[in-house]
Amino acid sequence: MAGSLSLPRGVVRATSTIGVLLIVLLTRAYGKQRPFSVADDIAFAYFGDPFQDKAEPLTFSPNGRYFVVQTEQGRLDINRPESSLRVYSMVQIKSLLSHPEVSANLSPLWRFSRSTYKDGPVISQLRWLRDSSGFVFLAKAETGADRLFLADLRTRKIRPLTPENQRVTGFDIRDQNNFVYTALSPAIQEQINAETFSASVVGTDRRLASLLSPEATIHWHDRSEIWGVVAGKRIRVMDPQSHRALSIHWRGQMALALSPDNHTVLTALSVPMIPDTWPRLYPPPYSSDLHHIIPGEQNPDAFDGWFDVSRYVLIDLATNSIKALPLGPIGYEADWIGLPYTSWSSDGRFVAITNTFLDREAANAASVAARPCAVVVEISQLQASCLETVLGNKSNGEHEEGFRLVDGIMFDRDDDDRVTVKFTGAAGTRGSTVYVRSSNGAWKPDGASKNLTVDRPIRISIRQSLNDPPVLAATDPTSQTSRVIWDPNPWLKNIELGDVSVYKWKDDTGRVLLGGLFKPPHFDASKRYPLVIQTHGFSETAFIPSGVYPEGFAARELAAAGFLVLQVRGCPIRHTPEEGPCQVEAYDSAVTRLVSEGLADPGHVGIVGFSRTCYYALKAITIGKVHYEAASVTDGIDMGYLQYILSDKAYSPDMMSVIGAAPFADGLSQWLQRSPEFNMDKVTTPLLVVGVGQFGMLTEWEPYSTLWHLEKPVDLIVLKEGTHPLTNPAQRMVSQGSTVDWMRFWLLGEEDPDPAKRDQYARWSRLRQLSEQSHRQAGGQ
What we know:
- By secondary structure, this protein is α+β, with helices and mostly antiparallel strands.
- The strands form ten sheets. It has an eight-stranded mixed β-sheet, with helices on both faces. Strands 2, 3, 4, 5 and 6 form a five-stranded antiparallel β-sheet that branches. Strands 11, 12, 13, 14 and 15 form a five-stranded antiparallel β-sheet that branches.
- The protein is globular and about 80 Å long.
- 22% of the residues lie in helices and 30% in strands.
- Among the domains are: 215-223 and 235-448, no CATH class; 497-780, 3-Layer(aba) Sandwich (Rossmann fold), CATH 3.40.50.1820.
- Helix 9 packs across helix 10.
């Protein structure tokens, strides 16, 4: 939607009217039920943002009286993603549960949608005001820049809180007149403008992408400025030494927390000089970990600070003075899992912080744990107390015993002596632990951890399963009355979806593996089906039509076309030379098992990779025991020599750990053996390569070009731009649609009759002739 975001009282914008109409017309054309298509996958409405984790499905007001439901879907009619918000009252919900005769499709108090940009989510980072009078969120403008907005629940109006010319990268808010936010530094755009008209630029220490297309990569930079609004007056925070705008990178942006008196900001800043002692004092969980703290200078004013070592500080908004807290660096930089979360006590005496080392320099290092903690700091005394230590994650995918990912921390609204630490357990369960401050100042856990889903008198949940699309539901735990409040995808009742089940098997080492088996509608157990292996994870509880990320993957679409699809969670090993072979063994053993059960046709098997699993798919077609009749890789890592050369020093250690060495001198022999690109001569599988963006095309060039030079069947499709994963409807249509077409062509010998695809099939027919010629030559030898 263009123009103002304000909505008059009582005016409700219809969501995806044209898109729903198209679905209805398609349903009528096919009859009672029709096959699931890529267009259906795009139109499907998710609760929250399950792929990028930028939007929560449910956000409750602090007083517990209201909650906001966010959904995300694509709209092919306008070629944009759409974010929709619906506000419900708990009074409504209680009334609904008390009157079973009332219609279950409950109308919200307020709803509105945004589709203002080509990529999504358009709305993100929704937070309620502390008095529950409204909520704020970031919304993308037509330029793609995020702007902070306030939605006033009383007036049903929406207004911007930040200027139109700023790109907001983080925020914290007390009320509409007192908040703090970060905005991308204007110096980035100034340099882009200057380079556009310059005869030359310095490329040293720059990413290649920023040199090839500076304007397109502005969102890759994270250097921002801090702005505060105190009593309605806007303040730009300045560096007390340089007297320029203070620079802040993504850890600090995420950690922003405004004090109750609105005068102090808790955040994290890059350390200008990393001491020589820090690698020893603040080690990673394991000596084999990729990321270690490296001593030396850092430039806090660099455009990119994604991998900077940071530590927590307090900034006075009135004086710009900066006070370091009695802590070491953030644990994230030393490979300790956990993002930065922060909270102030209501009296301003304490701050709570996640994943930070205690200061091991200011005390006897042996007396302080050499691992980060969730901590509480008493401001006046500058004294830090460790609530619980962070546990490590091994390269083989195993966690330390008792591992849990801390993903939130907050003081009790009514009691500053109570802090709640939120976490996600190793099995994906959500929970929390409350810590209580005793009379002697020590913080101790208050009983056992508890599950977060039982905290409210009325439970609001997203109810879904592998075969049941998600709906919004309410349950009264006392009466056990449960009702569906809203179904965002009622049109799916007219679709033949087929069945999905959890599938388990063992590899040759005895390791138990897991995935989701998507079966065609009207599945016949006595028939063998062509099989497609989809990689990159699997959820046992969520209804995800694509199987996983909506880029390259199209599980239900493929099942509708007559395929058996196995969505594989994969081998847990990472960052060692065993990573690739272990994944290949997982796929090989799955295919062997499905063939032995009489379900899969061994002569018609395909594989799809995306992101990191592009490497796995390429590894499978070079060293796997299974012959794949077709393969597809999209926008990913392939552990090739060209990708290593194109990567910066932050990413190259990962490739070195997987291959075992850098591709120089003696290490090159390991690349010749282990990198798929040096083994493409072994490939007999037709490969579809999909690159995203100018730089994405370049990183995907090596597997394509290698096979092209070897005169093997390979096709390259380049999406001129896009996110990772894709959110734009037209881009998804190409990406997911190409997977379906490619697998149908090679495994079933079928072609889509759409005249617009005539050139595609003419190109692929030539590849088929090339493939047949190659097989004949191989047979003659």
